[in-house]
Amino acid sequence: MKLWLFDLAHGNLTEPEIIKGFIKYYVIYNCTIQNVQDDIHFHTMYGVLGEQTALESLNKALCNFVDYEKER
Fold it and tell me: Which of 48, 72, 68 is nearest to 60 (CA)?
């Protein structure tokens, strides 16, 4: 999970990798986007920019996934 958080905070993941990691490390354990934010804020040294990058990337990936599924 720490590697996924690092890559998420630094913009190193594709959208499918973001969604897969979010499900694997958070959704399965009944956690939310807020838990991702808390983990980055309280358990890493990525700072505000890393936190913003991660949350923007995660929200964009989830929104694009939902829109993609609606079109099918």
Answer: 68
pTM for this entry: 0.88
What tokens does 21 get? 């990691």
Q: How far apart are CA 16 and CA 23, in angstroms?
A: 11
| pLDDT tens readout for residues 10-59 | 999 999 999 999 999 999 999 999 999 999 999 999 999 999 999 999 99
How buried is 67 (Cβ within 10 angstroms: 0-12 exposed, 13-18 middle, 19+ buried)?
Answer: exposed
Say whether 11 sits in a helix, a strand or coil: coil
- Residue count (the chain): 72
